[in-house]
Amino acid sequence: MKRKICVVVTARPSYSRIKTALKAIQDHPQLELQLVVAASALLDRYGSAVNYINNDGFEIAAKVFNVLEGENLTAAAKTTGIGILELSTVFDNLSPDIVVTVADRFETMATAVAASYMNIPLAHVQGGEVTGNIDEKVRHAITKLADYHFVASADAKERVIKLGEMPEMVYNTGCPSIDLAASVKANPTLDFDVFEKYGGVGARVDFSKGYYVVMQHPVTTEINAARKDIEETLHAMHGLNQPVFWFWPNVDAGADGTSTGIRAFREHHDLDNFHFFKNMEGQDFLRLLANSKALIGNSSVGIRECAYLGVPVVNIGSRQNMRQRGANVIDVNYNRNEIVKALETHAQRTEKTTSNVYGGGDAGLKIANLLAELPLQFHKTITY
User: Fold this and answer.
1) Could you tell me if 52 and 78 are in contact, meaning their C-beta atoms sit under 8 angstroms apart?
2) Can you count the helices (H) and strands (E) in the chain?
3) How many domains does the chain have?
């Protein structure tokens, strides 16, 4: 009998982070994939991932609509609570042998709590990393709830073991998103029309001589500064007078401040060189990055995939604080002058700097094989 592996995807970035593992699970002769899509991954305003999932040939076993409007701390907490209620019913109906949860967003806490209280073995992908904000609290909490740990780096593996987890249940598989980056690295050609395929808002800019990509999210522990923070980045990029592809923020608390800042800036400034997107299929997005002059913002894609691809990154603020990074990253504060200076420093470099700190491109297969072989357990031996 095949093992039933229930993977819960709760946000648009999570799908790209787990896509190759989904494919490997689907293709494995000893595994049955049960894909659950929940939270902001279902919402069009944040770039619904459902169409990409369907186009990639995955069948969705269940959908969970649990996001409360508000984009504030109270809404995030209540969204997590609703997620526990709804996912408990989904798990009861699907009866999975193992539940897989991805990374560190607040919605993933619901997956971990529901599975743990129902005595379902829980696998956590991308645990053990540090960032210095609420994501780190969520990540480490899920680590303590999880039974299997598929971490993305040697540093993360060491940290999970230090947290008291059984070493034999902690595996450095690398990050599945690097699998996608590896295929893009082999063929980085930007072979699609970004405007025709993804629409978006703003000018149809001429980016043939180069462009920048911006992806900046609010920091959940600094939500009152979200609008001021995004305005600094807007001023920096506007002053460059070069093509910019700008991606809308996640559903995190503070996102309203970020999006309001963008809208207000658009009303008062000529943005003929800017084009805004909600979402983009994972490999297309990585091709866009691979051909860009730099990524600006605070997304973990700058720390992970861009390190592997050698894309210059200007990482702003504290959202990725303390996370392992390659030499492609320059860290700055929310300050327009620092952002511009960092981009000038990158422009002076003649060679790309790449790093395999988050894996070499085979994480999905490793994860599927482990899910097929590991003993089914939902208890731990204390190793403190």
Assistant:
1) no
2) 14, 14
3) 2
Residue ranges making up the domain that contains 188 = 183-348
Backbone angles phi, psi at 132, to 5 degrees: 80, 15
- Other CB atoms within a 10 A radius of the CB of residue 378 amount to 15
Q: What is the DSSP letter of 316?
A: E
Verify that 240 and 366 share a domain, yes or no: no
Task: Output the pTM of the full model.
Answer: 0.86
Whether residues 322 and 203 share a domain: the answer is yes
Residue range 230-259: mean pLDDT, rounded: 93
202 and 333 belong to one structural domain? yes
Report whether 156 contacts 243 (CB < 8 A): no
DSSP strands (E only) in the chain: 3-9, 31-38, 60-64, 98-102, 122-125, 148-151, 170-172, 201-202, 212-215, 244-247, 274-277, 294-297, 313-316, 329-332
pLDDT of residue 47: 64
pLDDT digits (tens, 9 = 90+) for 334-366: 999 999 999 999 999 988 889 998 998 999 999
Question: Among 201, 152, 144, 118, which residue's Cα sits nearest to residue 303?
Answer: 152
State whether 214 and 131 are in the same domain.
Answer: no
pLDDT digits (tens, 9 = 90+) for 170-225: 999 999 999 999 999 999 999 999 999 999 999 899 999 999 999 999 998 899 99
